[in-house]
Amino acid sequence: MLVAISAVAAAVLLLAMKAHQEKTRANWEAARASQEAARAQDEARQARNATRMAAAAARGLRADPTTALAILRELEPPDVLRGWDDLARRALNSFVARAVLNHPDLVLYASYSPDGTRIVTACADEVVRVWNADGTGEPVVLRGHEDRVSSAAFSRDGKRIVTASNDKTVRIWNADGTGEPVVLRGHKDGVTSAAFSPDGKRVVSGSYDGTVRVWSADGTGESMLLGRKVGVIHSTAFSRDGKRIVTASSDKIARVWNADGSGAPILLRGHKDKLYSAAFSPDGKRIVTASKDRTARVWNADGTGTPIVLRGHKKAIYSAAFSPDGDRVVTASHDGTARVWDASGKGTPIVLRGHDVSISSAAFSPDGKHVVTASDRTARVWSVDGMNEFRILRGHADRVCSAAFSPDGKRIVTASYDKTARVWNTDGTGAPTLLRGHGDAVCSAAFSPDGKRIVTASYDKAARVWNADGTGAPTLLRGHRDAVYSAAFSPDGKRIVTASVDGTARVWNADGTGTPILLRGHKEGVSSAAFSPDGRRIVTASGDRTALVWNADGTGTPIPLRGHESWVTSAAFSPDGKRIVTASWDGTARVWNADGTGTPIILRGHENWVNSAAFSPDGKRVVTASRDMTTRVWNADGTGEPAVLLASDAAVNSAAFSPDGKRIVTASDDELARVWTDLEPLRDPGDPKLWTATTYCMPVARRMELLRNSKATAQSGLADCQRRVEAARAASREQR
Asked: What pLDDT was estimated at residue 60?
């Protein structure tokens, strides 16, 4: 019996052990399967992210930053691919469209309502749509035209819309979509343009039939014909007072008519090919025209004088319009870009990129802060007031060489090849104070420690000390034998150090008295010179590939900092005076011990010359400016990746922190200075900055094309994007 019991117990034990082993094996296999599934999911996520990164790069940050940003913010964490933050920051700083209004066919025209809350678009699908300007909600749809719609515009009270169509009619609609439109018939060919008079009682239209007609907006009576046929009329517009009409014609001439039909028109001749657009300035004194000859021109409306010519587009310009204050002009071109110009013709235009094909129209919002463009199958809304990632200081007529904050951070001084320095309010308000007197390019400008004076350096071989408010005559510091590249005050404001192509630096009394101390030792031109925080030392940078650290009184032998492989363009002390940062044409910046000991930290990443480098006020960061068109913010200890600030296609010549370290001012070859306010690195693809930058979510067809999504995946991705955009917008509204 005992033997039998023992046998049974042994059998049970064996079965239990076998069951345990099988359970352990099953658990192990399940764990391994789970790990393999997780690995497969991770590999699939990485593959999806790689596809997104490749798609963003393929779109090109220069060609379409809006789509690039829309793709990059959908990368799946954690561990997004290396370089994501750089690409995302570049896209964010490249004039992203705030909203994209998707259409089923080519968009031929877009314009704002008088209050700026709505946009009306004219489409090749024969439909007119009225949108919320922020891109939210569904548009009001106006149907009735029987061919493509060429133009659409609001009445001044915003209650009506006038449209022109290839179906030979003009129609006047209630903007809310109610009721039936008034139909104006009489043109014998497609109508290209229609616009209300300021009082809303009349409409002017132009047509392929070569005529201009003025109608009663209520549809009563006969239309009045202006003049004789003069080729295709591509655009028509009233002056603000309603007394004149300007037309643009295929015969290369713009005409300014009396709106009552009396008298002969004023002829604006000068374009070398057909005109597509003409519009009055808000005060009625000027007219801007757009032509197939690739130029826009700003004329005196009375025909006197010579027009200002705006050149830069590579193909025909289809539209041109003034900003509400008359200071700027926006143009739309067959080259796929829109450009925002200074109406005076000075400076470099802002370039808006992203449309796939030619842009047929562009118009300012009533507050001048936005532009709406019409093209491909979208209308896009852009911010153009420079209040996104940076503020623009515009006014110089040539490249800006340097920019620096005042000690209190409330002002900025810039130096330019246009032979002037300018003192701006940092917030962009008011007109800059102009410091004029140098006979050649001004290479640098800097405030005194008390903010009351400014020192400038020029190619005219002199430095000048000015009152910062522009009053009085400057003190002239003359003695260098060649161009003076830089000038800076000592910490006590009593001395100035200058650097020159003549191979020397000189230390002057700031009041111009006495004889300067000569610092001679470099074997090539000296590109920059700066005092240490205690004023006892000076660091100079030179074309001989070295920086030298001198006693400011000229005694002793300078300490050399060697290692750069090309011209050293700038050198500056850290706030505690223990370190020096240098910039070089070898594409690097280097952080050295000021006593020359040890090995420098090398900051690599720029793809061209580094033109300047400076420490932040706390000494923890370094900002560099480069010919590769970027500004970069680094950890001064060399750890981590730099934040990249990119705004234009122009070389950046200098960059400097504000006294509080929260802003950076840059100076560029595009004749602009920029004040950057967002220096925080992007956290991850969920960063709110990315989701509030644009309401654009790629449509299903676009996702299938660019991301190779299935239709179901594309639909899911679109819905998820729309939810995240709305959540980010709601959070932003709550914060305000």
From this structure: 60
Which residues of the chain, if any, have pLDDT below 70?
1-13, 59-62, 81, 386-389, 736
Phi, psi of 711 (to 5 degrees): -60, -40
CB atoms within 10 A of CB 602: 13
Q: What is the pLDDT of residue 389?
A: 63
**Closest of 188, 211, 212 to residue 202, by C-alpha:** 212
Angstrom distances, CA of residue 471 to CA of 106, 446, 452? 56, 17, 11
529 bridge partner residues: 540
Rounded to whole angstroms, the Cα distance separating 646 from 60 reads: 14
Q: Which residues contact 5 (CB under 8 A, 6 or more apart)?
A: none
CA distances to 91, 276, 683, 724 from 688, in Å: 15, 41, 9, 9
Cβ-contact 604, 626 below 8 angstroms: no
DSSP 216-247: ETTS-SPPEEESS--S-EEEEEE-TTSSEEEE
DSSP code for 443 = E
Tokens of 159: 């209650």
pLDDT for 4 equals: 62
Q: Is the separation of the CB atoms in 335 and 360 below 8 Å?
A: no
Query: pLDDT tens digits for 641-674?
Result: 888 888 777 999 999 999 999 999 999 999 999 9
Sequence-distant (6+) residues with CB within 8 A of 224 are 213, 214, 215, 261
- Element of type H or E holding 146: none
What are 311's strand-pairing partners? 295
Residue that is written with structure tokens 């197939």 in the block = 292
Q: What is the 8-class DSSP label of residue 250?
A: T
Query: Using an 8 Å Cβ cutoff, are 706 and 55 in contact?
Result: yes
Given this model, what pLDDT does residue 1 score? 58
Rounded CA-CA distance 674/615 in Å is 18
- In this structure, which amino acid lies at residue 53? M
Q: Write the pLDDT tens digit of every residue in 551-592.
A: 999 999 999 999 999 999 999 999 999 999 999 999 999 999
Pairing type for strands 664-668 and 672-676 reads antiparallel
For the range 561-567, what are the long-range contacts, defined as Cβ-Cβ under 8 Å and sequence gap of 24 or more? 561/590, 561/592, 561/596, 561/600, 563/590, 563/600, 564/588, 564/590, 566/609, 567/524, 567/527, 567/542, 567/543
Please give the model's pTM, rounded to 2 decimal places. 0.80
C-alpha 161/C-alpha 274 separation (Å) is 28
List the structure tokens of 633.
């913010």
Q: Which CATH class is domain 97-388?
A: mainly beta
Distances in Å between the alpha carbon of 150 and those of 52, 128, 324?
36, 10, 23
Query: How much is the pLDDT for 647?
Result: 76
Contact 595, 559 (CB under 8 A): yes
Amino acid in position 98: R
Dihedral class, residue 367 (left if φ above 0, else alpha if ψ from -120 to 50, else beta)? alpha
Q: Report the C-alpha gap between 65 and 468 in whole angstroms.
A: 39
**Bridge partners for 674 per DSSP:** 392, 666
Chain-centre distance of CA 39, in angstroms? 41
Domain 97-388 matches domain 398-676 at the CATH topology level: yes
Q: Given this model, what pLDDT does residue 736 score?
A: 66
- Predicted local distance difference test score (pLDDT) of residue 489: 98
For residue 280, list its beta bridge partners: 287
9 CB-contact burial (10 Å; exposed 0-12 / middle 13-18 / buried 19+): exposed
Domain boundaries, the chain: 2-93+685-735, 97-388, 398-676
Handedness of CA 562, 564, 565, 567 (dihedral sign): negative
Give the full edge-to-edge strand order of the sheet including 233-238: 233-238, 244-249, 254-258, 266-268
Length of the chain: 736
Regarding the domain delimited by 398-676, which CATH topology (the fold level of the hierarchy) does it fall under? Methylamine Dehydrogenase; Chain H (2.130.10)
